Amino acid sequence: MILSAEVECILYDAQSLKEKRSVIKRIQKRLANEYNVAVSELDFQNLWQRTCIGIVTIASSKVIAEQTIQQALSFIDSFPEIERTNTVTEWL
C-alpha cells in the first residue's frame, strides 16, 4: 500500500527564504529519519512564509501506512514555528 500526503503550511516567523529553508530542511531530515518516509517540498519554494510538503510511505497494510502518515503529521504539528493549514491524503 502506498499513501501520500500533501501538507500546506505557514511559517509565521520566517523573514527570509534562508530561514524558511532552514526550518523545512530540519523537518524533512527528522521525518525521513524517524518515520522512514520520503519527504519533499512540492510547492511555494520562492515564498518565504508558505510551503507545501509531500510525504509518502509504503507499507504492507493500510493500517500501518495510515499510522505512519498520522505520526508524521503529528510530528509536523509539534514544531512551534510552522502551522499546518491544509492536508490532502491519497492512496496510490
Concise overview:
The chain has helices at residues 17-35, 62-77, and strands at 2-10, 38-43, 50-58, 83-91. It is an alpha+beta fold.
Give structural notes:
- This is DUF503 domain-containing protein.
- It comes from Halobacillus campisalis.
- It holds the Pfam family DUF503.
- By secondary structure, the chain is an alpha+beta fold.
- 38% of the residues lie in helices and 36% in strands.
- It has a four-stranded antiparallel beta sheet with strand order 2-3-1-4, covered by helices on one side.
- The longest helix has 19 residues.
- The chain is elongated and about 40 Å long.
- The N and C termini lie close together (7 Å).
- The mean pLDDT is 93.
